[in-house]
Amino acid sequence: MGRKCRDCMTRVPYATLIATVMCCVGVGVFCGTMYRGTTLTLRLFEDVFKLHIKWVEPVQLTFMVVGAGMGGLGLMILFVGCLSTGDTRNKVYRTWRGRVGGRISCAIFMGITYLLSLAWLLMFAALIIVTLFYTLAWFQCQHIPQNECIEYNQFSFLFPAGTPEEDKRVCPGERKLFCKDYVNNAEIMFILASVSAFLVILSLVHYLMCLAANYAHIKDQEKFMDLQEIQFLHESEMSTLPKDRF
């Protein structure tokens, strides 16, 4: 029983498993916080600035698709890692076609992971900008006197053309709704989303290292199989030689 347990433990790709856990946790937190954050942002624009935004629901659906896709990608890379670890590698990649297929699959996943890393870096940069906007709004809520309006005319580019000037300010009657109900909660959501996006980026970098190592292992497996074949032929020739020669 102990030997079987040790054999199973040697077949586990721990590095890829750690990256998969990081990816799943990061994507899960990202999807949840972004869904909540975009919902608060939509309600903020509707209730405070009297703007109706129609593209929020498709964006929320995109977050769900991204979460499912990243989860599936993580499981597939984990499967590739299992095939490239321990005795499993010796059995799966014994033939020439198996080794070529394994190297091609690793190369494809490396390309996909690299492109996803760039996409998540752009997403992380966008989240940092959004978080800075909410942090600025929170500072304004804290430092502008309660009896004065918070002006957002300097952010006119965020409002559709023709928006009335009075809809670009938050006056005392809407301060509690704007500051405590929306800005404070949305800022927390986007901070968590930024942290989770950074965690996903780390997991993708970890995946790239694991896939590169798996590619090298599969490539070295071909050399190992050639050495085994040479050793077998050498032992066969030695066994056929007459003993009196020695």
From TrEMBL:
Organism name: Cherax quadricarinatus
Q: Name one Pfam family in it.
A: Myelin_PLP
Q: Membrane-spanning regions, if any? A: 12-35, 61-83, 104-137, 188-215
One Gene Ontology cellular component term attached to this UniProt record is: plasma membrane
Q: Does the record bear Plastid in its keywords?
A: no
Among PANTHER family, the record links this protein to:
M6, ISOFORM F (PTHR11683:SF12), MYELIN PROTEOLIPID (PTHR11683)
Q: Name the chain's protein.
A: Neuronal membrane glycoprotein M6-a
UniProt KW keywords: Membrane, Transmembrane, Transmembrane helix
Query: Origin, by domain of life?
Result: Eukaryota
Q: Which InterPro entries match?
A: Myelin_PLP
An example GO biological process term is: neuron projection development
